[in-house]
Design brief:
Rossmann fold, alpha/beta, single chain, Quinone Oxidoreductase, Chain A, domain 1, seven-stranded mixed β-sheet, globular, six-stranded parallel β-sheet
C-alpha cells in the first residue's frame, strides 16, 4: 500500500509498505482523507518540530477519516464499508496521567505521526491502517469523509476552550487564523462567546474567519491600528486565544487583555520572551493547551449534528500520488488553509 513517508527535511516520498497483522480488538480501515497539519509541514520542511527531530523515516499524518474494511474476533458493532472519523490519540490508559483523566499527557502516548519517541510513532497517511476499536467514531450519512477528517483539529480547539473555562457572553480575541484557529472560532461561537475578534496577517484566513463566526476581523499587516481601541482601560478582552505561535501576537494579546483575563497559548512556535511586568501587573492567567483526548468524540458529534460547519476551512484536496504537491501547496499560506490528501478514490 502507498504511504507518505518523510525521510528528512525536503525529502518526502510515496513508498509502498506492508500492513501489519490485524489484532482481535482492532479494525482494518481504508484511509479516505488526511489533512496536512502544521506539524507535518515542519517535519517536511525542516526535518523537525521544535526540539523534536526526525531520526528515522516516518509516515506522516494524524488528521484522517476512513472506511471500515475488516475487524478482529473481539470487535462487534461495525459493518464493512462503514464511514468513520479516526482519533489519532492512543494513550496507554495505565500511567498516572491516564489514571487522572489527563490522557493527552500520557507517558506512553502513541500519537500518530510523532517523532517525539524513538522509535517514532508512524502516522496515518497510508492507503490502509490498523486501528484500535476505540479510535473509530462513526459519522453521519450527510457528513462527507473530507469534513470528518476535520475532527482532529476541531478537537484541539475544543480542548483549548476547556482550558480557558466558560466563554459564555465574553469578548474573545483569536490571534492566528490557520485551520485550528478557524475551527476554534466555530467552536467559540458554539460555546456562546459574546463577541469574537480574529486577527491574522493575510486576507484569505480572515475571510474564512468571518464564515466561521468571527464578528470582526483585523489584518495586522495593514490595519494593526484598529487594535488600539482594545487597549483602553487596561484592556478589553476577557479571553485571548493565541493560535499563531508568534511572539508578536502573544505580546499583542497581553496588550489588549483585561486584568485577570485568561490567555490561552494554542500555537507552538518555539520559545519566546515574555513581558513579565505586564503579565504580573495585569494578573493575567496564562494557560497552555496541548492536544486533546475526550474532546474528539464531542468534535465528531458537533460535525455529525451540523453544529459546526468546517467546509470553509478546506481549500484543496489532492490524490495521494500528488502528496508532495499537496504539502507544497499547504505551505503556501497565501492560497491555502487546510489541504487534504485523498487516499481512497471511492471516498470522493
Amino acid at each position: 500500500m502507498k504511504s507518505v513517508i518523510c525521510h528528512s527535511a525536503q525529502d518526502l516520498r510515496i513508498e509502498s509498505i506492508e500492513l501489519p497483522p490485524l489484532g482481535e480488538n482492532q479494525l482494518r480501515v481504508k484511509v479516505a482523507f488526511g489533512g496536512i497539519c502544521g506539524s507535518d509541514l515542519h517535519y517536511y520542511q525542516h526535518g523537525d518540530f521544535g526540539t523534536v527531530r526526525i531520526k528515522q523515516p516516518i509516515t506522516l499524518g494524524h488528521e484522517v477519516s476512513g472506511i471500515v474494511d475488516g475487524w478482529g474476533a473481539q470487535v462487534s458493532g461495525f459493518e464493512r464499508g462503514q464511514r468513520i472519523a479516526i482519533s489519532p490519540s492512543r494513550p496507554c490508559g495505565q500511567c498516572r496521567f491516564c489514571q487522572a483523566g489527563q490522557h493527552n499527557h500520557c507517558l506512553n502516548m502513541r500519537f500518530y505521526g510523532s517523532a517525539m519517541p524513538f522509535p517514532h510513532i508512524q502516522g496515518a497517511f497510508s492507503e490502509a491502517i490498523i486501528i484500535e476499536r476505540y479510535q473509530a467514531h462513526p459519522i453521519a450519512a450527510h457528513l462527507s469523509l473530507s469534513e470528518a477528517a476535520l475532527a482532529e483539529p476541531l478537537s484541539v480547539g475544543l480542548h483549548a476552550i476547556s482550558r480557558a473555562g466558560s466563554v459564555l457572553g465574553q469578548q474573545v480575541l483569536v490571534t492566528g487564523c490557520g485551520p485550528i484557529g478557524l475551527l476554534l472560532i466555530g467552536a467559540l461561537r458554539r460555546a456562546g462567546a459574546g463577541r469574537i475578534v480574529a486577527c491574522d496577517i493575510a486576507s484569505l484566513p480572515l475571510n474564512c474567519a468571518r464564515e466561521m463566526g468571527a464578528d470582526e476581523t483585523i489584518n495586522l499587516s495593514t490595519e494593526a491600528e484598529r487594535l488600539e481601541a482594545y487597549k483602553a482601560e487596561k484592556g478589553q478582552f476577557d479571553t485571548v486565544f493565541e493560535a499563531s505561535g508568534s511572539q508578536a501576537a502573544l505580546r499583542t494579546g497581553l496588550d489588549v487583555i483585561r486584568p485577570r483575563g485568561v490567555l490561552v497559548t494554542v500555537g507552538m512556535g518555539g520559545d519566546v520572551s515574555l513581558p513579565m511586568t505586564q503579565l504580573v501587573a495585569k494578573e493575567v492567567d496564562m494557560r497552555g493547551t496541548f492536544r486533546f483526548h475526550a474532546e474528539f468524540a464531542t468534535a465528531v458529534r458537533f460535525l455529525n449534528e451540523g453544529l459546526i460547519n468546517g467546509k470553509p476551512v478546506i481549500t484543496r484536496v489532492l490524490p495521494v500520488d500528488q502528496a508532495i504537491e499537496a504539502f507544497n501547496l499547504a505551505a503556501d499560506k497565501s492560497q491555502s488553509l487546510k489541504v487534504q490528501i485523498q487516499f481512497a478514490p471511492e471516498a470522493a
